[in-house]
What does this fold into?
Amino acid sequence: MNKILKRILIIIAIIIGILVLVFVGFFLKLKSEMSGFTPMETGKITDDIFVVKDDFANVFIIQDSTQYIVIDCATDKANVAKQMEKLGIDPDKVTTVFLTHTDTDHVGALGLFDKAKLYMSKEEVQMINGKKSKFLWFGNSISRADYILLEDRQTIQIGNLKIESILAPGHTSGMTAYLINDKYLFTGDIASLKEGKIAPIPAFFNMDNDQAIKSMDIIRYIPAAEYIFTAHWGYSDDYKTAVTN
It folds into this structure.
């Protein structure tokens, strides 16, 4: 009996050791890949667009008169609130939040905008209801259940802002870009931006890397777009050059 128990304990120890090595390797790889992120510092980009830096991710804020809409919510609620204070923007003036997807570094400060309407892609629900996950059994989650779902290429009007959702899966099942007033394209994690041109993001971060690369073509053909904004690699005010192969 003692021999059997000893063998069981050895097997358990081996399994635990393997799991520890897997998770350590995962987080080391994560840290290495994240070292290539180049998010923008908090500030004003155009007359009506602001950016907030939260560690390695950006939050974009678009102004329409006295109201604001937000694209993604980064990681840290307290830090996002602090950065918005620097810009003189009251979180309570944010009327609408659009999520490009539901990874932790895009939804962490969502609670700061509890009074705002929340939109995301219909396809992204799979990432938060347990049907799909990016790493083993670890799915995504968000702090609210009162979200409004968008179809691909659906357009909604908020004040003077026209927002079109553009589905481009791969990074997650519902990865979505948003085109504001046919001019400003916010791409989340569809692509990185290097030396003024879009490029694939590290495959490590994608749920389906082949599909993610194919989806980059979707954001190359937005005729009226002038600006392109990424979540971790800055922006370009020369869309046409940025998307040229």
Remarks:
- The chain has six helices and 15 strands.
- The mean pLDDT is 91.
- The chain has two domains: 1-35, 37-242.
